[in-house]
């Protein structure tokens, strides 16, 4: 703006008015800042002095900030659950909390509300770094916690981040230093703490461990100890879990300071809390009947939302793929730890939003996940312990809704599992399956395995992984590996036979040794008794029988191959398609050494070992077709077979000595030497040439003789012996003989005498003489 413009006038005339406006604009801002500071101080005093009344029910009654209250109301969280009403008044004061409550009781808000409030009251800003850290055992639970945090904390100015495995490490690295609240899984968090430059947690205010028992069970105890060593000791720690085990109590002693126990009656013993609206059932069946009963249940509950638990990823994949091909009439989903992160999130979202569906899952879906309106929880494979049972069935009967749980138990597991659950206060009622509704699917699975090698491969892996899970279970009084009907179980999966498994063979050998020792001990006792009684004959007979049995054992006949073995050997079962390669390329596990593969022992010539340079050069040469032909001995050859059936090359070279000696060299043919017919043909050809030459000379002589007499030769003389006619067989080229065709040439023209025209004899009358005579006669007449 220039100096002479009229707009500059009013600013000079009314400076007091502008200053008044400026002052009035500044005063409310200062007042607002002061009021916010006072509000935070007031909230701090109220929280420290707050005593929860007996009828505490709503979040509005708590000493929390307005942004948190509005966020909770916006997300439709109004009334509190029991665990929230007990823990929030304590955690808002900044004390450590060790909480245990049944699944679906609202533990997530029990630690998210204190996280937001502690940082808000301490005026946490973007430059202050990481203020709160929430550790979750699984990716799905971490995602769920992060979504709840976004829904209730959207009115705050904090920045929040999600750090889980399966995502881009570089993108997380760039944003990590800007986060105030972080939700993470243990492995990826420790990786960032060790590798990411600038990521520090020195100012951490709140640490939350959700589902702490699961974190320890998944093998993260060392990782968790390493994480705690990176964190400051002057922090508030909130530890929540559905079950309180000895390992959780040990972790609490290490990481919590004077914690307040919430929802736990006896702090020194394990505690399990069961949803009150849940019905517990179990049915007894054999191992080979499980899939048939499961199929019958799905077909009779098409309008239900069902969650099916299996013990391993391989079983989940096998059951999912086979049931999809059989088309039960309800959407099928699967969720396990070997899926990619995007696929896991997609499956979780689909099942959450679906009204009717069946989700096959491992224990990765057993902790903390909130699936709405789940009607049934089926446990096809028995849980490892009572705590796992509690977490599995906790996916239904969430908060105040109802649900049903059904567990499949084998006769060998029935009594032991019932006793283990009874010790935890869980009573399960036995029911029977309606066999009229159960349809055996063994033949269908067998057809699928025969038609598709990929299904057979997944069946083998499912078989091995199930037996391995039983082998690794701690309670051997319930899970008895040697009593499992392995052969029958393999047939129920559609396999032609049970794959050989090393640990199963070892267990069987151990069991056999124990039985032999027990039998030997019993035999010694019996022999002692018989010796005392003097009955030596019976003792001798029994020893003979034992010796006979020992002799027969090494010579037992091998198992006869069944028709299923021969049927499955028709296809190459080791090649997977592109679809299953994608499924398996991330499936890195240590199950492969449990399957023993027998390789054919081919009798190959052992050459000198090639060096690495030679092998690399061969690989490069094999890439080219021409060079590959050089290495492999040339291209393919076409063979012909003689009358005796012996093969020969199309253009076969013979030995030079044999050709010269036996077949007469270049002029010879098969049979040795030139035959008489060939010699005769050559002589006839020569005779024909001589005859042609002789006749040609006779014609020339005859023509020369006639010309010498002065007569004009118009045609051959009829009285002459040689009339000049030549037979066609000597004039035309022969068509049968190649030798005659090569030597044939047209006869040369006959030579005429030049003297008959240039120098005629004066005594001979010529045509010119006759013409001259005629002219004279005409002249005389005229």
From TrEMBL:
What CDD domains does UniProt report for this protein, alphabetically?
DEADc_DDX10 (cd17941), SF2_C_DEAD (cd18787)
Q: According to the UniProt record, what class of enzyme is this?
A: hydrolase
Give positions of region: Disordered: 1-43, 512-565, 598-629, 662-770
Motif Q motif located where?
Answer: 57-85
Answer yes or no on keyword Ribonucleoprotein: no
Q: Which family does it belong to?
A: Belongs to the DEAD box helicase family.
> What protein name does the entry list?
ATP-dependent RNA helicase
Q: Which organism is it from?
A: Mycena sanguinolenta
């Amino acid at each position: 703006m220039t100096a002479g413009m009229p707009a500059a006038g009013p600013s000079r005339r009314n400076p007091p008015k502008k200053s008044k406006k400026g002052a009035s604009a500044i005063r409310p801002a200062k007042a607002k800042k002061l009021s916010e500071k006072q509000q935070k101080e007031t909230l701090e005093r109220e929280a420290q002095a707050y005593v929860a009344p007996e009828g505490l029910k709503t979040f509005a009654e708590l000493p929390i900030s307005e942004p948190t209250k509005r966020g909770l109301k916006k997300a439709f969280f109004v009334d509190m659950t029991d665990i929230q009403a007990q823990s929030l008044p304590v955690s808002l004061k900044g004390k450590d909390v060790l909480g245990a409550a049944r699944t679906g009781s609202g533990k997530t808000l029990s630690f998210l509300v204190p996280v937001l409030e502690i940082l808000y009251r301490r005026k946490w800003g973007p430059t202050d770094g990481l203020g709160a850290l929430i550790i979750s055992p699984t990716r799905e639970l971490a995602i769920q916690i992060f979504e709840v945090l976004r829904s209730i904390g959207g009115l705050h100015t904090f920045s929040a981040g999600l750090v889980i495995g399966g995502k881009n490490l570089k993108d997380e690295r760039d944003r990590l230093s800007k986060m105030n609240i972080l939700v993470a899984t243990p492995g990826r968090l420790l990786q960032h703490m060790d590798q990411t430059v600038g990521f520090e947690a020195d100012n951490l205010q709140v640490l939350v461990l959700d589902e702490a028992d699961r974190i320890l069970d998944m093998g993260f105890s060392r990782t968790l100890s390493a994480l705690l060593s990176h964190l400051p000791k002057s922090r508030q720690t909130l530890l929540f879990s559905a079950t309180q085990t000895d390992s959780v109590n040990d972790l609490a002693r290490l990481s919590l300071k004077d914690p307040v126990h919430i929802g736990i009656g006896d702090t020194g013993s394990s505690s399990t809390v069961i949803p009150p609206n849940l019905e517990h059932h179990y049915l007894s069946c054999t191992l080979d009947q499980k899939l048939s009963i499961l199929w019958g249940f799905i077909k009779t509950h098409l309008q239900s939302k069902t969650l099916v638990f299996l013990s391993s990823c391989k079983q989940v994949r096998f059951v999912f793929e086979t049931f999809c091909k059989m088309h039960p009439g309800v959407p099928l989903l699967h969720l396990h730890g070997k899926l990619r992160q995007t696929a896991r999130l997609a499956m979780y979202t689909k099942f959450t939003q679906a009204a009717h569906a069946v989700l096959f899952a491992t224990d990765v879906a057993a902790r903390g996940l909130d699936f709405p309106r789940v009607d049934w929880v089926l446990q096809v494979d028995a849980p490892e312990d009572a705590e796992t049972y509690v977490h599995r069935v906790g996916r239904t009967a969430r908060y105040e809704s109802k649900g049903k749980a059904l567990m499949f138990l084998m006769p060998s597991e029935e009594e032991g599992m019932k006793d283990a659950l009874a010790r935890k206060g869980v009573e399960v009622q036995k029911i029977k399956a309606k066999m009229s509704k159960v349809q055996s699917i063994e033949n269908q699975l067998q057809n699928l395995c025969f038609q598709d090698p990929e299904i057979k491969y997944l069946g083998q892996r499912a078989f091995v992984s199930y037996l391995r899970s039983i082998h690794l279970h701690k309670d051997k009084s319930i899970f008895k590996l040697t009593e499992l009907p392995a052969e029958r179980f393999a047939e129920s999966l559609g396999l032609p036979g049970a794959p050989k498994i090393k640990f199963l063979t070892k267990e069987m050998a151990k069991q056999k040794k124990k039985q032999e020792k027990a039998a030997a001990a019993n035999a010694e006792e019996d022999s002692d008794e018989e010796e005392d009684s003097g009955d030596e004959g019976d003792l001798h007979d029994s020893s003979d029988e034992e010796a006979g049995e020992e002799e027969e054992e090494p010579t037992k006949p091998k198992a006869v191959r069944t028709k299923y073995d021969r049927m499955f050997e028709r296809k190459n079962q080791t090649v997977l398609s592109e679809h299953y390669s994608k499924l398996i390329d991330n499936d890195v596990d240590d199950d492969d050494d449990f399957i023993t593969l027998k390789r054919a022992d081919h009798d190959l010539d052992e050459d000198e070992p090639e060096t690495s340079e030679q092998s690399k050069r061969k690989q490069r040469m094999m890439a080219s077709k021409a060079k590959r032909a050089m290495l492999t001995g040339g291209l393919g050859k076409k063979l012909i077979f003689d009358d005796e059936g012996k093969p020969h090359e199309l253009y076969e070279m013979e030995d030079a000595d044999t050709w010269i000696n036996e077949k007469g060299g270049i002029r010879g043919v098969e049979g040795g030497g030139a035959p008489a017919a060939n010699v005769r043909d050559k002589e006839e050809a020569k005779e024909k040439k001589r005859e042609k030459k002789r006749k040609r000379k006779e014609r020339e002589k005859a023509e020369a003789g006639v010309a010498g007499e002065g007569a004009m030769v118009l045609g051959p003389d009829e009285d002459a012996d040689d009339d000049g006619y030549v037979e066609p067989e000597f004039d035309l080229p022969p068509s049968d003989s190649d030798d005659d065709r090569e030597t044939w040439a047209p006869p040369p023209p006959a030579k005429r005498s030049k003297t008959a025209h240039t120098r005629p004899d004066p005594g001979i009358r010529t045509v010119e003489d006759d013409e001259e005579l005629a002219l004279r006669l005409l002249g005389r007449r005229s």
